[in-house]
Design goal:
Jelly Rolls, 2 helices
Length: about 170
Amino acid sequence: MRRTTIIVLAAMATLLAIKGWAQQPVQDHGPASDAKAGASAHKVVTPDTLKWEDVKSLPPGAKMAMLEGDPTEEGFIAFRIKLPANYKVPPHYHPCPERVTVLSGTLHLGMGEKADQSAATALTAGSYTSMPPQMRHFAWAEGETVLQMATIGPWVITYVNPADDPRKK
């Protein structure tokens, strides 16, 4: 066979394989397997399907709704946090990068081991911030504020001052 014929046949075989793969039926993994399926499963979440729950690792009043993954296991996770007006999160840090988008309200975010409100930046709806692992930061909400967060699980929060940890009260 000529080299050109071999290349054309190989290209056709590749295209047929891709076409067959693309036509495979989509499997519905359902909510029970979403955490293990991770990014390999198509997932759609609408606001009316969110299940808001108390967040035991944050001061009372915060609510969390999982979008993807399991916050207690390794792997990508995405979730929303709803903070009531004037809600404060004391200085803390996380072992993995944290990516936050403000969906509504205003989040005042400051860096450091002390909650110095004059050093915070007001992040209004549509704002985005990312923080590297171990970065000490604090926050408070102006009006009810909803955040969307993405990180690598397990989601761990360590308070700079252990007395601020609501799990120890």
